Amino acid sequence: MIRAAIIPAAGLGTRFLPFTKSVPKEMLPLINKPAIQHIVEESVQAKLPELFIIIGNGKGAIVDYFNPIHEQAAFLKEKDINLLKEVLTDKISGTTISYLLQPQPKGLGHAIFMARNVIPTDSYFAVLLPDDILVGAEPTIGKMAEISKKENATVIAVQDVPRTHISSYGVISIKKQLTQDLYDVSSLVEKPSVEDAPSNLAIVGRYIIPEKIFGILDKMQKNITGELQLTDAIQELINRGEKVIAYKFPHQRFDTGTPRGWLEAIIHFGLNDPQYAQDVKAFLEQQR
């Protein structure tokens, strides 16, 4: 059984400067919940009871957000306390949240490496990137955990991306298509040119990874920018004969790590919120 999930949240969020000078990008609101809560809720729905959030300097707002509300209770009205309980406390009950420090942002692989002492030997764990909000009936990471258990394999999430955008992603090369939505992966290519891309299936921020990845990360050389990349470590797993499966998830995805993606997510949640849907629809009609 997979129990642990890692949420890397130490990035600088430079695309949202100057806002992110004082507020973590993971705390950007989507209606009344920050983006990172959607990620935590996905983990909870997938029955992953141990969450480890990787934080860096200036990320104290994330810790404060998930702290119990009793300290503020004396200053809040009863309806406000009930709202916090319903939206926050009840959603993450039964889950423990711990924080691990990444002193400097040195790549996703380095962020994952910060959890090397908390993941049991010979187990698998989940990784969820807080920029990728996936909206669907079932938690994507839960489906991936099921696939990993059945296949005894690393599992990465992928989606179809237009060829014109493929250079912004890591891309899989397919050894064999297993089912309509599962692929045996032969290699990973980070941000290929349009001409060199081996497929149009781009890697998205959900992973199920074996604990042995830490030994690979520990011995890896940093790239020319001084970072450790997770895709390089997964490629090394493939080189060693480990099975890596790509899961093409059916859900809608919003990249809230970019202003455009965040705006799209805001509109989506607004249109699907009973309290705001009519007002949002009316406003959009006025803008035509």
Explain what you see.
- By secondary structure, the chain is an alpha/beta fold.
- The protein folds into 2 domains: 4-257, Spore Coat Polysaccharide Biosynthesis Protein SpsA, Chain A, CATH 3.90.550.10; 261-288, no CATH class.
- Helix content is 31%, strand content 25%.
- It is built from 9 helices and 13 strands.
- The strands form 3 sheets. It has a 9-stranded mixed sheet with strand order 5-4-1-6-11-8-12-10-9. The protein has a two-stranded antiparallel sheet with strand order 2-3. It has a two-stranded antiparallel ribbon with strand order 7-13.
- α8 (259-271) packs across α9 (277-286).
- The chain is globular.
- The model has no long low-confidence stretch (mean pLDDT 89).
How are the elements arranged and paired?
Blueprint lengths: L3 E5 L20 E2 L2 E2 H11 L4 E6 L4 H7 L11 H12 L6 E6 L6 H6 L10 E5 L3 E4 L4 H12 L2 E7 L9 E8 L4 E9 L10 E10 L2 H7 L10 H10 L4 E5 L3 E4 L3 H13 L5 H10 L2
Parallel strand pairs: 1-4, 1-6, 4-5, 8-12
Antiparallel strand pairs: 2-3, 6-11, 7-13, 8-11, 9-10, 10-12
Separate helix tally: 9
Distance between the termini: 51 Å
The general outline is globular
Query: Quick one: CATH superfamily of the largest domain?
Result: Spore Coat Polysaccharide Biosynthesis Protein SpsA, Chain A
Give the mean pLDDT.
89
Q: What portion of residues belong to β-strands?
A: 25-35%
In CATH, the architecture of the largest domain is: Alpha-Beta Complex
| CATH topology grouping of the largest domain | Spore Coat Polysaccharide Biosynthesis Protein SpsA, Chain A
Poorly predicted runs are none
Helix content: 25-40%
The largest sheet is: 9 strands, mixed
CATH class of the largest domain: Alpha Beta
